[in-house]
Amino acid sequence: MTNNKTLCPYCGVGCGLEVSPPAQAGRETNRDSQGNPMWKVQGDRTHPSSQGKVCVKGATVTEAIAKDRLLHPMVRNSLDEPFQRVSWDEALNLVVGRIQAVCKSPGADAISFYGSGQFCTEDYYVAAKLLKGFLGTNNFDTNSRLCMSSAVSGYVQSLGSDGPPCCYEDLELTDCAFLIGTNTADCHPIVFNRLRQHHKKNRDVKLIVVDPRTTSTAQAADLHLPIRPGTDIDLLNGIAHLLLRWGYFDSGFIDECTNNFPAFADVIKHYPPDVVAGRCGISVNDLETAAKIWGKSSRVLSMWSMGVNQSSEGTAKVQTLINLHLMTGQIGKPGAGPFSLTGQPNAMGGREVGALTSLLPGYRFVTNPAHCAEVEEFWGLSAGRISPTPGRNALEMIRDLENSAVKFLWIAATNPAVSLPDLERTKAALRRSPFTVYQEAYYPTETAAYAHVLLPATQWSEKTGTMTNSERRITLCNGFRFPQGEARDDWAIFAEVGRRLGFVEQFTYANSAEVFAEYVQLTRDRLCDQTGISHNRLKTEGPLQWPCSESGNLKPGEPARLYTDLKFPTPDKRAIFAAYHSRGLAEPPDQQYPYVLTTGRLYGHWHTQTRTGRIDKIRKMHPQPFIEIHPRDAKKLGIQDQDWVEVRSRRGYARFLATVTQAISPGTVFVPMHWGELWADHAEANALTHPEACPDSQQPELKACAVQLAPVKPEIVSSEVLYKATEFKELTNIQSS
Ligand code: SF4
């Protein structure tokens, strides 16, 4: 517990942090609002990704780590009963007994596991080995399903493999940054900071931002395209149309490195500028300017996140964006490429380890018999043990709770009672679960209300493991505090369950370094080769990017890009043009529900506030949920700034204070997604959203649904709806004492 370097546990930027103990000689100890001593945190100047910079979330993270922790295993027979504290032995016997009973009848397919991008790679790996290998079910999904599964699917289909080809150094080498569906300034602040410095210093560098909102990212743009929600593919095909018309394409690259260009060219001829501008709600001039900037730039870097991925055509959007890179040869070179920004700190690690229902470790697929055979052999399983069928994803888990196909639900380090779409339906389904294990560091969370067993997990600061950030850089997150209460590491809980199920040899690890050492062997000779990386090397040399094979000679901090030889991991080494027409929104506005609701994140908060809701500075920064409405719509509805507004969709309702602002386009409204029942009454964005998902990635369209708005009489609501955690805390104290 002496090494003080680690990684920020919030977003996929993956900033390096240095922490120092609370009590230092001669200084007064800082304490959090519950009186716990607080560790000091600052940016790690030696970390290549962040170079010492850190945003408000990273800078305040230690304020949340000791508060409202789940300290002991707890159980109850039904959701109406209070939890009773039990020993680990009792809790694990109950869990293992239930798994054995379900495996016997109706079978392992009745088990569903839902994990998290907050996991370390080691946590994912042991869970994947247990579920996909030894229990024989691919029903292992994570909250990355909601975040970037469309990016995975798009990369795989266009380039032959997952894996963002770029690195952060490209932020300072590009001459055109094309940001679509990402409020980078607020959601990936340190990436934006690096890009913005480069943009400010170099007048010729252009920044294009595509977003229906005038976000802080859009405010910094040379060109902001506030397109209507659901018209991304129109825009991208429209830009491609102009690039082709004006001769801004790389015929050598297209001929030698790609397939399917004719089908793509056939599609984009239907996207002339006047049609595209009309559909997108932008001017022809702005569309042409965007195409000209892209066409004339020698290094184009595109970036995207949830605004593209969270869509019923998310994969098609990702591929249509990659098309622009393929037609102009903007990939595999410094300063260029399609760069997906990941949400969670280790969503990338999850992709590498196989933590989605269709994946296996080392960028393998359950649908590929050779991949299954390789992993079976490595894990010492009999042939055919790994199911060749993708398992039940997050949305199917809800469906199958409804139809009673799920008999054992295991949720870890995530909060689906706030984050899944169509929340009333989700909560009703969670209520139906006959047996739910919830493994978490904090209590209360909204999801704890649906659990029969609570297993206390260590979290960042208490466990040692690795995480991979958006630029494929792996950092060792050192544990620097002792676990609170009886909390155990996630990987250790999975391993203990594995041993109690009888797989003693296969799940015995002395520490997480041993887990990592085993896992990296499954990356050997794969695109994401990490065989040259170990905990010890990370500790002594610092963070490393993959590919990093045993024989590779990449130095720490040296940038690694993919596809620099212009060969792609497809059978004929060529990338593939996709040919998609826009399908638009799954639920377009109509007479009854005339507005498009889009959801998003705020600078200070993280997801469902499990940590940031417990940090005073951040709560003061974002004291309450709100809805952004354009002045024209507000006038039409008789809504003034700071009036209460009731928002209804076909699935539910919520109430927010109005922020009347030009920052949102007419016809569109915006609410942040951070507030669940724990923090405010009737302010859940996902009470309104629908579960329609991309057919390829199964990522739901959390970014757009049709709603109606009405002002609410002031006497119906009061502003005393916020921060109710005290009530829950009292409950915790009673039950755990
Ligand atoms: Fe943490 Fe992301 Fe902020 Fe960096 S940018 S400090 S990783 S939240």
UniProtKB/TrEMBL annotation:
GO terms for cellular component: membrane
Chain intervals for the UniProt region annotation (Disordered): 22-52
Coiled-coil segments: none
Biological processes, Gene Ontology terms: nitrate assimilation
CDD domains: MopB_CT_Nitrate-R-NapA-like, MopB_Nitrate-R-NapA-like
Requisite cofactors: Mo-bis(molybdopterin guanine dinucleotide); [4Fe-4S] cluster
Source species: uncultured Coleofasciculus sp
UniProt xrefs under Pfam families: Molybdop_Fe4S4, Molybdopterin, Molydop_binding
Gene3D superfamilies to which the protein is assigned, alphabetical: 2.40.40.20, 3.40.50.740, ADC-like domains, Dimethylsulfoxide Reductase, domain 2
Residues annotated as domain 4Fe-4S Mo/W bis-MGD-type: 1-69
Domain of life of the source: Bacteria
EC number(s) per entry: 1.7.99.4
Keyword set includes Disulfide bond: no
Enzyme category, top tier: oxidoreductase
Record-given protein name: Assimilatory nitrate reductase large subunit
